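Problem 12. The chain below contains 717 residues. Write out its predicted structure in token notation.
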Amino acid sequence: MEKKALKVLVIEDDPNYFILVNERLSQNHDPSFELTRSKHMQSGLERLREGDMDVVLLDLMLPDSEGLDSFLSVHRAFPAVPVIILTSVDDDDLAAQAIAWGAQDYLTKGSFDRELLVKSICYAISRNQGQLQLQKYYQENEHSKRTLQDKDERFRSLVSNIPGAVYRYTLSAPGEWKTDFISDVIKDISGLSAAEFMGKSIAAYFEKVLPQDLLLLQDAFEKSIREGSMFSLDYRIRHVNGDFRWVHDHGRAVRNEEGRVTHVDGVISDVTERTKEKERFNQLVYYDALTNLPNRELFIDRLDQAIQQARRKKEIGAVLALDLDHFKRINDTLGHPIGDQLIKAVSVRLLKVLFDSDTVTRIGGGAFILLLPRVKKNEDAENVANKLLMAFKSPFLINGHELFTSCSIGIALFPNDGETSDILIKNADAAMHIAKERGKDRFQLFSSSIANNSFERLVLENSLRRALERNEFQLYYQPQLDLRTGKTIGAEALIRWQHPDLGFIPPLEFIPIAEETGLIHPIGEWVLRTACEQKKLWDLEGFKSFRISVNLSARQFHYATLVDMVGDTIRKSGIDARDLDLELTESTIMDRLDETTLTLRRLKNMGTHISIDDFGTGYSSLMYLKTFPIDTIKIDKSFVNNVTTDPDDRAITQAIISMAHSLKLDVVAEGVETKEQLELLKSQSCDIIQGYLFSKPIPVHDISPFLLSDAAKKILA
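Solution.
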């Protein structure tokens, strides 16, 4: 007889996470699952009123409901339906609070695999059913004078099916609690049988708790008794084999008819695997893969806390922006592997200067941000900056190379130079750039004059907000030459901004601002739409044999509606999806791996071509290149620049080409500017080139004449 599918209601407004859950559960056949999605709380409640749902996966942040209100809306209306919270990293505290109010479990978005998700759902349903039956059983037997251990086999059968150790602690004398009952599952958790706890003081169990966690458990237990409330917390206990297990203890104090607390009922569940999974996820989410330093997200969280504490205690703190001088030259000269080793060595040296209470994070390349949460006066921050500068006076020994490098440092103090993390980091960064302009290897305090330079940036930001509506953007196109056929096979769309007052503004100046402000989404959509519409016009002119390439920024790629936007643009423009090449940087694809893989597959299923831009500058591996549905690798121009003069860059280029071909991927070399570079790349079997040697980026009205010209023959002659 075929088993009935478990019905799962996913209340989640982000389609990507629903697709991820659906993908995970569709891989499992025993049990099988039937998923329904509601985008809003209201529609979710309406679906629950129809009945027959076995479990709810609930996002706490919905368009029409936020935080604990989201959980309580479901739990109060449908207490018999178990709820599992889907939480982002920022919502972990809320999720834990929801557990305390009756949620069965929570999963961090993007961090769960199929096994963990299936186990969480099955346990939640089983645990919820057991708790409901247990409540009913207590109600039926509330006037019974028999003790729990004398009750019938029905009770023992009931609790044995609950995936956790069910317990009851009873007040035997004033201030003395004993274990009146605990189910046999406790042996799986602690290694000790239920008989070794039954009838004994709860101290017999409490002594198994890790000493560092015992005080938390005692406080929670005593508060529950004092207030007649629930408690819910995670802590560690020692198994008889010497290992520590993480458990989740969910208990409630029960009052008698006179209002006195007489016993505590609860369930102890083994959450070791969930905790380990969370720790692994936190390592990925909160720490830099290269240096193992806290990443920007964790840094900002600590900075926000330091700002609040400084405000309360009327103290000061400092943010330092530190950037290695000439780091790009080291990378270009000795190669990125040496550069990576240098970054690691720098990280170790920085930590030796700082106190344990300080935080340092790497934000990319040779750039770091440091937090000094407690400095008594401005001079303290200057003293730390001087120590950091001195730490770079001795050379770094990297793979036989003796490397000398210095750094430039900018200092912003809070609260004087800013009262939010964004402003402080921005001001410290502005001061650091002034230090570089004044000769490097020095520090610079933020000042009002530097603030004036920041004002100029603000003017640029305000202009950027109006640039789209004023039609100030243009697209230029840089053709690509296929070395195998000698034909122009594509063109990369490149945005240009012609400001009416400031003149031409390079993309390197306004794209970072667009990323920071979120303007990259409408600008990116305009670029994609304009490029696709122009490709259709070229199709009508008879130029159908080449592909149009469009860059997707990191922030744009991770936007929830990206895939739908790309699909709509392709349909409305009428082009063949195979003629659209979407370019992503290597660092972009290595962020949020599960989400990235899902998005890439959805884009690839449309028929689009996928390219990895700036390859060689990030940290992707062969495993991921095999996993991602990509078609082309574009070698970063920093390698091509010196490919004829630098043996390391030549070897790296050859390795990338060979690796790509082994994976049946095409290779595009960017920034080809000389005949010598072209000949060397041809000898290495590079497929396609792009650069000034073939063509600079040209306006749209010059593309058709270019395609009709014999430019390719001249280059290859």
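Discussion. The chain has a mean pLDDT of 84. Students who got a different answer should revisit the alignment rule from Section 12.3.
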